[in-house]
TrEMBL record:
Residues 1-33 are annotated as: Disordered. GO terms for biological process: peptidoglycan biosynthetic process. Signal peptide: none annotated. InterPro entries: LpoA, Peripla_BP_I. One of its GO terms (molecular function) is enzyme regulator activity. This is Penicillin-binding protein activator. One of its GO terms (cellular component) is periplasmic side of cell outer membrane. The keyword tRNA processing does not apply. Keywords: Membrane. It comes from Sediminicurvatus halobius.
């Protein structure tokens, strides 16, 4: 069925070279220059080689040998300038065969470096082994470069020190090779900024436009590897050539999720640096790449369990996607194909293969953990997958992203909220279940990362109502009463006594679902918890206003999705929420978070791979502020909320105390 766009059920090393060109000469054969060769040097080089005479008869004396050697060297240098490293390496080797001593060694080392440029390490090692004395003054600089290139990435920090400073008396070609080795050492030592600086210094020394183009790509790769916070600190940069590189990288990276801002930033950069090497084709290509990555997929297959007990859940997600679809500009709307994979997800593999046959650009779903487990069987995915759930054991598989309403995200945000409120020492009360264990573990980890500490964790039966035992243990009330009994025994008479909770506890983290949350808060107060801050996850609030029932949770602080809290951060999301409420009011009331999940699933379809390569960038979403970690998991940062007079409201900080993650 079709509904207006909805269809029914290491360092870069530049271009790779072949190990050996099919027309590359074997040792001992003359260098081919025939125009018919698919590897010919090009018109200019061919003419030059013919002028100086490519096929020279074997020399009869030393003078002729020197002339032949010098000829081969000139031919090799021409080949390098014209971007033909294969013939250049051969010519350097031929010249070395006609030389002796240090001259022969220098020529072999130059051949070795050219071999390394095209990835032929084996031949480079063989040439290094032919040297008579690698430490001879005339040979040592080139030998150092070759040894560094062969050793990296091992001992990278050591090679950085050995290659600095750059010797002052190197000829331009050797200096370029030296700087290339130093840049590679910096990259291997995880210092992309210094690698980029060195590559910028190297570029003008390179003989051919081809090599300069490759070097610009390497420089750009290094700038793309810089952590975004570090790049932000470097801008505004000095208005020199390298400073302009930094500004271009910053302009593109901070605007990766905004096409209009990207175009404006690049245009402004070109006006400031019209003569920069990247001002022409290079920046144009980078801009086109970025805009292309922001275009939404044309075809999306959505796999949901429309039949079975989860049918209403699947329908809520579907409706969220549909309202987001129709709020997109008409020319950007993808075609959606919905497939039913059933409650158990047993046909999820078949559904994925049908998506491939249909020509899908992205698959959204499945929704259940069991279906995700069945789908997560491949090392990579020809059609990328944005799963609507998460499994901890599934991670880092290219093309597979995991996005869902994971309680771990709530717990981590709640931990940061606790510390921001000044509560660094907390106790934890969770249901005795897999869900409770996961939430407790995430909260404890998040609390520790934020500088806090979990004093104790207690659990309770999920089907129980009396929480006296775990609360008394958490609050140390039994110990307080034991001290009272001991004191009475010493004194020999009765004493007035009121048990006191432990003094080192600043707050309690008690995640629970609505019915249990309404029981927890009154029992906390009964067990000497008056005035004790209590924090929870979004699960404590049903998503539907119920002021009479929720009055028992007054004072509870928790984290909530912007969609439910009514604190959407963009006009587009506000419009989409209004559309859902008008079109499907029952879904908006009963399943607001699931509808928000569908909204964000569609909004993530274009930028998810951008977020994956730029983990510090975030997308303002309906379910939270979204980012993607290095394992392909979509992380959500939620907003602080509380219950007051039985109703949800934003937890407002004084302006000077607003935490960084909320600014």
């Amino acid at each position: 069925m079709l509904l207006a766009g909805v269809a029914g059920p290491t360092q870069s090393t530049g271009p790779a070279y072949p190990r050996r060109c099919p027309h590359r000469p074997s040792r001992g054969q003359p260098v081919p220059v025939s125009p018919a060769s698919s590897c010919r040097l090009g018109g200019v080089l061919l003419a030059l080689l013919l002028l100086v005479g490519c096929a020279v008869a074997p020399p009869d004396d030393a003078a002729e040998a020197d002339a032949e050697r010098d000829l081969r060297v000139r031919q090799a240098e021409i080949a390098l300038r014209l971007g033909d490293p294969f013939n250049a390496a051969e010519l350097f080797e031929r010249a070395a065969d006609l030389a002796e001593g240090e001259t022969a060694d220098r020529l072999r080392l130059q051949a070795a470096l050219v071999h390394l440029d095209v990835g032929d390490r084996e031949r480079a090692e063989a040439l290094l082994g032919m040297l008579a004395d690698v430490d001879a003054p005339a040979v040592a600089p080139l030998a150092t470069i070759v040894r560094a290139r062969l050793a990296l990435p091992e001992d990278a920090a050591d090679w950085v020190q050995r290659l600095r400073p750059v010797p002052a008396d190197l000829i331009p070609r050797v200096e370029a090779w030296w700087l290339g080795a130093l840049a590679a050492a910096h990259r291997a030592a995880d210092d992309p900024l210094e690698a980029a600086r060195v590559l910028d210094r190297q570029t003008p020394l390179l003989a051919s436009e081809r090599d300069r183009r490759i070097n610009r790509e390497r420089l750009w790769s290094a700038l793309m590897a810089l952590p975004l916070p570090q790049l932000r600190e470097l801008v505004p940069a000095a208005p020199d050539r390298f400073g302009a590189w930094l500004e271009l990288a910053h302009a593109l990276r901070v605007n990766r999720l905004d096409a209009a801002a990207t175009e404006e930033a690049v245009a402004g950069w070109r006006e400031r640096y019209p003569e920069h090497p990247a001002a022409g084709e290079f920046s144009e290509a980078r801009l086109a790449e970025q805009l292309q990555r922001l275009r939404p997929p044309e075809r999306i297959t959505v796999m949901l369990p429309f039949t079975g007990r989860l049918g209403s859940v699947a329908e809520a997600v579907q409706r969220g996607m549909l309202v987001a679809l129709y709020d997109m500009p008409a020319d950007e709307r993808p075609t959606l194909q919905f497939q039913d994979v059933g409650e158990d997800g047993s046909n999820v593999i078949a559904a994925y293969r049908r998506a491939q046959e249909w020509g899908a650009d992205l698959v959204v779903g499945p929704l259940t953990k069991s279906a995700l487990e069945q789908l997560a069987i491949w090392d990579n995915y020809p059609v990328p997958v944005l799963a609507l759930n998460r499994r901890d054991e599934v991670r880092g598989q290219p093309g597979l992203f995991q996005f869902g309403l994971a309680p771990e995200d709530d717990a981590m945000t709640a931990a940061r909220l606790a510390v921001q409120l000044g509560h660094r020492r907390l106790t934890v009360l969770v249901p005795d279940s897999d869900w409770g264990d996961r939430v407790a573990a995430s909260f404890v980890a998040g609390l520790h990362a934020a500088g806090g500490r979990a004093l104790e964790v207690q659990s309770y039966r999920p089907d129980g109502e009396d929480l006296s035992e775990p609360l008394r243990a958490l609050f140390d009330l039994d110990a307080s009463e034991a001290r009272h009994r001991r004191l009475q025994g010493v004194i020999g008479r009765g004493l007035e006594f009121e048990p006191r909770r432990r003094a080192d506890m600043q707050a309690l983290f008690a995640p629970a679902f609505p019915d249990m949350a309404r029981l927890i808060i009154p029992q906390v107060r009964f067990h000497r918890g008056l005035g004790l801050p209590v924090l929870a996850t979004s699960h404590a609030y049903s998503g539907t206003p119920a002021p009479d029932a929720d009055a028992d949770m007054n004072g509870l602080m928790f984290v909530e999705t912007p969609w439910v809290l009514g604190e959407l951060q963009t006009p587009e999301l506000t419009r989409t929420a209004r559309t859902l409420a008008e079109t499907w009011p029952d879904t908006a009331a009963r399943y607001p978070r699931l509808a928000a999940l569908g909204v964000d699933a569609l909004r993530l379809s274009a930028p998810v791979d951008v977020l994956a390569v730029e983990p510090r960038l975030t997308l303002e979403g309906a379910t939270g502020e979204l980012s993607v970690d290095d394992q392909g998991r979509v992380r959500r940062e939620l907003l602080p909320a509380r219950i007051r007079s039985g109703r949800i409201e934003s937890l407002v900080f004084p302006s000077a105390e607003v935490p960084e993650w909320l600014r």
